[in-house]
Amino acid sequence: MVVALADDGSSAFEAEERVVIALDFGTTFSGIAYCFPNQGSSKVATVVNWPGIDGEAHNAPKIPTLINYQGSKFTWGASVNPIADNIVGVKLLLDPSQEKPLYLPTGNIKSDLKKLPKDPVLVAADFIGAIYQYALGEISKEVPKSYMDLCQKQFVLSVPAVWSDAAKNTTLQAAKIAGLFPVTLIKEPEAAALHTLHDLGFSLRIGDAFVICDAGGGTVDLISYEVEATTPRLKLKELVPGSGGMAGSLGLNKRFEEAVKNLIGEEEFFRLKKTKAWFRANTQFDREIKTSFRGKPSEEYFVNFPMADLDDDPANGLESNCWRMTGNDVKDIFAPLITDILRLINEQVNEGIFLVGGFGGSQYLKSCVEKAQSGIQVLQPSDAWSAIMKGAALSKLPKTALVESTKATQHYGVEAWSVYDEDLDYGEKAVSRRDGTTRALTFTWYIGIGDDLRRDQVIKFPFYRSIDADYSDSDLIFQDELYESKDKMAPRHKSKGDAIKINCIVKSDFRGVDQSKFREKQDTNGKKYYDVYYDLVVKLESALMTFSCEVGGKTLGLVEANYRN
Fold it and tell me: Coiled-coil segments, which residues (predicted)?
């Protein structure tokens, strides 16, 4: 998918009155928060009256991220029949390159994609559009209609920090297809940090450091922050590159499913999954057992499979369609995910730890972190589940906390022909260029792992291209490849790197550039040609880079970026 990223259009939507609408599009649950910045307060509200929600779940800030298609129509959220063949976890399909840990049951991404009625970005857009349109009606009830009509809408969408740039961009496109514009992205731990510090209101000093651990349904993200300034507003900076992985609570459900399959056998489990008995048992584990588990071997839970007609297995606790799960049984399900999260936390610099997100609300997870990080305070905000969407809304308020800088999680650079160096380029392919020089293909890395990236910082990647004197219009459509690398040391050549790949291909249109900007040259045969010098300009925003192109300091009008998974 090719998308224009040079201008997010936000300047065209500046308005005296505005409403900020923040959307937390989650793997298992999603929600929307909002605020009116011109009302003179930093109060952020959440949409809580969702269709299909009743009973104890009424006034819940989130709904299940479920969608079910019936031809061209679909139902969504809590209105979906829970035992139907629903689409679950479409968010994870937006980043198929995300590495899956070995402790989760093996799946087939290609098979999951084939089951969808349309491209995952369009499924995501349907869901995002549906909850936004409904939420807009709820938000409109809070203020007079005349005022709501005056307000320009400003959207913020949170994304996992560990996602690839391609996945973040795909999520952005889903939001735009859903009608959210102008929309900006914010990393989920950053949003959680903004809300947590704003909500707790305790005194912070310059130099204080803490970790935000956002443990959600699909992913776990961790970023360490240090207080850079406290007045006139709180300013934070990232201490080390963020880390994370697919250790979210959805993994617990998948491991519970695997445990039941091992208990009753694969053939019997295949039959069970088609019944209401499985839905009841799975719901019981999801809503009761994994949320109340405290890690004690003495705990026991009775998982019911009503009318499933399962064979008794007393030795393993299965009798009369009821499985007696011991504390150790549940602990085995949690174990590898807890180990993974503790490892990630241990890699971060910290003086305090905030657990947020749905999984972040687990008391068992909190106790494990406290035990592993003795002497370090572990805090669990009371509204950890809604911290991300509230923080995303706060990010657009002028006087709240601000993350001033982040740390690069990988190298970014370009590959180009450079003058051959006998020492550095020995053994690499060399070619003779039209200017008579011998050159080799080498990387220049403009951003390195761990580099401080200031908010709204602009980095210029200089290029030049040679074109024939009798060039045509098509010769003035340039395509440049921006590379990324996770190698510890940034390699000079492709042959020396283990983790190099194309981040995106940037397409620039030079047909409107005055030819006087081109440098006239002659090759070794006396034939005239032109060198075109220009800068690929990268602007660093909260969660995604934007691109433009400059010739002699003047910005070109059309630049497109095609991201690669």
Answer: none
Mean pLDDT, to the nearest integer, of 285-305? 97
CA distances from 266 to 111, 269, 308 (A): 20, 5, 15
Average pLDDT over residues 197-201: 76
For residue 488, give both structure tokens: 């510890």
Residue 288: predicted pLDDT: 96
Identity of the residue numbered 227: V
Per DSSP, the three-state class of 144 is coil
- Tokens representing 553 are 């300091």
Q: Which residues of 346-368 are buried (b: 16+ CB within 10 A; e: fewer)?
A: eebebeebbbbbbbbbbebbbeb
Which residue segments constitute the domains of the chain, with CATH numbers given?
Answer: 3-247+339-406 (3.30.420.40), 408-563 (no CATH)
Dihedral, 121, 125, 127, 133 alpha carbons, nearest 10: 170
Give the whole-angstrom CA distance, residue 87 versus residue 100.
19
What is the percent of the chain where pLDDT is above 70? 96
Strand, coil or helix: 153? strand
Please measure the distance between the N-terminal and C-terminal CA atoms of the chain and give it in whole angstroms.
11
Tokens found for residue 110:
């290609």
pLDDT category, 388, cuts 50, 70, 90?
very high
Residue 136 tokens read as 């807009």
Q: Which residues contact 422 (CB under 8 A, 6 or more apart)?
A: none
pLDDT of residue 54: 67
